[in-house]
TrEMBL record:
This is Ribokinase. One of its GO terms (cellular component) is cytosol. K(+) binds at residues 229, 231, 265, 268, 270. Its cofactor is Mg(2+). The gene is rbsK. Keywords: ATP-binding, Carbohydrate metabolism, Cytoplasm, Kinase, Magnesium, Metal-binding, Nucleotide-binding, Potassium, Transferase. CDD domains: ribokinase. Its EC number is 2.7.1.15. It comes from Pseudoroseicyclus aestuarii. Residues 4-276 form the Carbohydrate kinase PfkB domain. Signal peptide: none annotated.
């Protein structure tokens, strides 16, 4: 099986700060860096590093050779990465405080310029039963889900950045919904009724994660680690979970693997660069 990730691609500009600045305050960063990010790209990297097969469909600013080279270095194919004239590659400005919490401001850039024809063409190269993965960081959320369903793919939605009005109409078009516990509560407050056949992956922060499907739920505990940066942790969990499901593991084993992957990821700075490889995750799991 293969995952077609219709996903965002960002440059992440990360600033470590002792605390988040107050309105009107100028605060000096203790360090700064630029790296790969975007929920979509993070998830594709997590899938690939967890042994899954992934095709990333996205868009960057025309002439962004540095991004193309960075994507090649991650082992991702470039055939379905469009270069958009008149738009910059998406970006995120991320503040990380002394407690490893983050505050993020997004500029969608080229992520908002993915063409429907590109999605339709990519779907012709997929097989029925493959996965399509979407997040709320591109313009192809609703239409992408519809096209994937029409092509016979299973559809997974990472419902972030969360917007109940964007998610509610999609609940009948998706097979797996990935949310954190706050997003799930917001969805329910907005009147969202989860369809009977919809599987849900809920991340619970330090309490781990829960997978709900078919009237049953499976929980996996979080590993106790010293967090450095939590940016991209949820993306790592979802990507790793999908990869292990696609590798033939059951939900319980896939969830345990995903929690170990997420635990390792937060012990390192950055988003995509911090995602662990399969051998690292398996070594952590072997420790019990």
């Amino acid at each position: 099986m293969t995952v077609l990730n219709i996903g965002s691609i960002n440059w992440d500009r990360v600033y470590s700060v002792p605390r988040f600045p107050q309105p009107g305050e100028t605060l000096a960063a203790t360090s700064a860096s630029v790296g790969l990010g975007g929920k979509g790209l993070n998830q594709s990297v997590a899938i690939a590093r967890s042994g899954g097969q992934v095709r990333h469909l996205g868009a960057i600013g025309a002439g962004d050779e540095a991004m193309l080279e960075a994507l090649r270095a991650q082992g991702l194919a470039l055939e379905e990465i469009a270069q958009v004239t008149g738009a910059l590659t998406g970006s995120a400005t991320i503040f990380v405080d002394a407690e490893a919490e983050n505050l993020i401001v997004l500029d969608p850039g080229a992520n908002a310029r993915i063409e429907e024809a590109a999605v339709a063409q990519a779907l012709t190269r997929m097989a029925k039963g493959d996965w399509a993965l979407l997040q709320n960081e591109t313009n192809m959320l609703g239409r992408g889900a519809a096209l994937a369903r029409e092509a016979g793919l299973r559809v997974a939605l990472a419902a972030a950045p969360f917007d109940a009005e964007a998610v509610l109409p999609l609940l009948d078009r998706i097979d797996l919904l990935a949310v954190n516990e706050i997003e799930l509560a917001q969805l329910q407050e907005a009147g969202g009724t989860l369809p009977e056949g919809l599987a849900v992956l809920v991340t619970l922060g330090a309490e781990g994660a829960e997978y709900r499907a078919g009237g049953q739920s499976i929980r996996a505990a979080a590993h106790r680690v010293e967090a450095v940066d939590t940016t991209g942790a949820g993306d790592t969990v979802l990507g790793a979970f999908l990869a292990r499901l696609d590798a033939g593991e059951g939900p319980e084993a896939a969830l345990r693997y995903a929690m170990a992957a997420g635990a390792l990821q937060v012990t390192r700075p950055g988003a995509a660069a911090a995602i662990p490889r399969q051998d690292e995750v398996e070594a952590l799991l072997a420790k019990g």
